[in-house]
Structure formats: structure tokens, C-alpha cells
Design a protein that fits this description.
Layout lengths: L10 E6 L4 E7 L1 H6 L5 E5 L7 E4 L2 E3 L4 E7 L3 H9 L8 E6 L10 E7 L3 H13 L3 E8 L8 H5 L4 E6 L6 E2 L2 H11 L5 E5 L2 H11 L5 E5 L15 E4 L2 E4 H4 L2 E3 L5 H8 L3 H22 L1
Parallel strand pairs: 8-9, 8-12, 9-10, 10-11, 12-13
Antiparallel strand pairs: 1-2, 2-6, 3-4, 3-7, 5-6, 13-16, 14-15
Helix pairs in contact: 5-6
Length: 291
């Protein structure tokens, strides 16, 4: 499919991994050329839409595309789930933003992705492998039906560990079980990189802390402008305060105050609930008119 010459942000591919998780491959040659593992973009569905930060899950410089994997959990992401199909366009994509991750001087690394964090950890695994490191991939899902990109990971990982909550695939249990197994087998791991829900990244940091293994986490707190001006994405690291948009998104997992982060993520929960209810009601009214 040839990209529409009149659209800078055309969606050329849509893939659904589950009833709430979907992939959008967007045509943006300049961004694909500039993107690096660890960076993110800020997306707007339409001119009146919310600006939401999304980690770049993949990029293809030859095709001129970037890939986003999105979970429909709020009003905007559910609206995008309905509206974004191959051939449609996004109103705006800003990026790549954030400081790219570093991959040199690491001989053995474990790349950990939980839930939606599985997608953005893939570029890390690939970049570490291309830099010459021994790569251990560790991913976690609720069950085997939610597993995606297994073949992509195996093509760049020397070892690949899958954890499922119900034991329907791989190791039964939380992703920390896979982390423990990797440390027992490879006590010489230089670094862990973890992306996923805050509680999962906190668990990863606590699992590696007793072994004093460097642990990097990628944070995605509430964000507005993405330039450090609004201060909405403040992150506590010990007695320091950083902005995830310009100082991150990568931080030392052993220093991050995850409890504060999780509280901040709930800051606009009531407003989000109201927005979701209004949008859902609007959808129901449109359905009734069509009938």
C-alpha cells in the first residue's frame, strides 16, 4: 500500500493482538530515520483530541514507518481503537522525544517486558544484540492467548523466557519468576532493562537490588507538553526530581520512587472517568441514530 501523498501521518497497517491491545504502523519517513530505541512520541487523534505519550515499539527506516502498540484503557485510546484503521490518519505525531537508550559496553543484558511493555522492549533487545551483547529476553502476559511478537524476539535473543500468570505458556507466575531464573543461570548479567506497568518495574528493581545489578526502567508518567515546561511528568529519584520527558524516559530503577509515581498516575482518575462516560454516552447515541 502506497502512503497517501496528502497525509504526513497515515496509518498503513493495523493489527489487533487482543480485544484491548492493537498495533498501528504509521508512515513518517523523517521520524523513522531519527528514531532510536527508548524514545517516545506524543500523538493526537484529531484537532480537539488529547495529547498522549506512546513509546515507539519499532521503526523501519527503509519503509519509513514507526510502530506503536496501544492498550485501550481510557477515552482517547478507546476512541483511537475505533477510529484508527489502515488508510486513516492521525492528526499529529510529535517526536521522537526523550533521550535514546545506551547500548555500548554491555556484554550480557536481560530485557524485561510486561504486558504492554513487551512491545517497546523489543527495540532494546534488537539494539543490544546488534551491539554484540548476549541478550536474554523475559516477557510476561496474563495467558498464552495474549502473547505476541514471540518470533521477533527469538530472532534477536540468545535466550527467551515467557511468563504467564496462569501457566498456560512458559513459566507460571509473575515476571519476577523469570528474572530470578535468569539471575540464577547468569550471575554475570551486566544490566537489566525493564518496561511495563509501574508495579511490574518496581518488582523487577526489587528482584535485582539484592544482587546489585544495574536496572534501567522506562517511565511513562502523566505528560502534557513533552518539553519539561508543564512539570506534569515529575519523577522522584531519591532526593532529586526529574522530568521524564526531557531527562528520561530511562532512569535507575533502584532510585525511582515507584509509590509516588503510582499515586501521581491516579491524579486525574476522576476526570478520566467523566471523559470516558461522556464519550461512551456519545457513542451510544450515535448507534441509536444509525439504527
Amino acid at each position: 500500500m502506497s502512503p497517501n501523498q496528502f497525509s504526513r501521518f497515515e496509518i498503513i497497517k493495523r493489527e489487533d493482538f487482543s480485544d484491548v491491545t492493537y498495533l498501528l504502523e504509521c508512515y513518517h519517513p523523517l521520524m523513522a530515520k531519527a528514531a532510536r530505541a527508548g524514545q517516545f512520541v506524543i500523538v493526537m487523534l484529531n484537532e480537539h483530541g488529547e495529547r498522549i505519550p506512546l513509546t515507539i515499539a519499532d521503526y523501519d527506516r527503509e519503509k519509513g514507518t514507526i510502530t506503536l502498540v496501544i492498550q485501550a484503557v481510557g477515552k482517547t485510546t478507546r476512541e483511537m481503537q475505533q477510529a484508527c484503521q489502515a488508510g486513516t490518519s492521525l492528526y499529529a505525531i510529535t517526536g521522537p522525544m526523550g533521550i535514546p537508550s545506551h547500548f555500548d559496553k554491555v556484554k550480557k543484558v536481560a530485557c524485561v517486558g510486561g504486558g504492554l511493555g513487551v512491545a517497546p522492549i523489543f527495540p532494546h533487545a534488537r539494539a543490544f544484540k546488534e551491539s554484540g551483547a548476549y541478550v536474554i529476553g523475559i516477557v510476561g502476559f496474563r495467558n498464552k492467548n495474549l502473547i505476541f511478537w514471540e518470533d521477533k524476539f527469538r530472532s534477536f535473543c540468545d535466550e527467551f523466557i515467557i511468563c504467564t500468570d496462569d501457566g498456560s505458556a512458559g513459566i507460571k507466575g509473575l515476571i519476577t519468576e523469570g528474572i530470578k531464573q535468569a539471575i540464577e543461570k547468569h550471575p554475570d548479567i551486566d544490566e537489566f532493562v525493564a518496561i511495563g506497568p509501574p508495579v511490574m518495574m518496581k518488582g523487577c528493581a526489587e528482584a535485582t537490588r539484592p544482587h546489585n545489578i544495574k536496572t534501567i526502567v522506562s517511565l511513562n508518567p502523566l505528560m502534557v507538553d513533552g518539553t519539561g515546561m508543564c512539570g506534569g511528568c515529575r519523577v522522584k529519584l531519591g532526593d532529586q526530581v526529574k522530568f521524564a520527558c526531557v531527562d528520561g524516559p530511562d532512569f535507575d530503577g533502584h532510585k525511582v520512587d515507584f509509590d509516588d509515581l503510582m499515586i501521581r498516575l491516579k491524579r486525574f482518575a476522576e476526570e478520566e472517568k467523566v471523559a470516558m462516560e461522556r464519550w461512551s454516552e456519545g457513542c451510544r447515541m450515535r448507534d441509536q441514530v444509525q439504527v
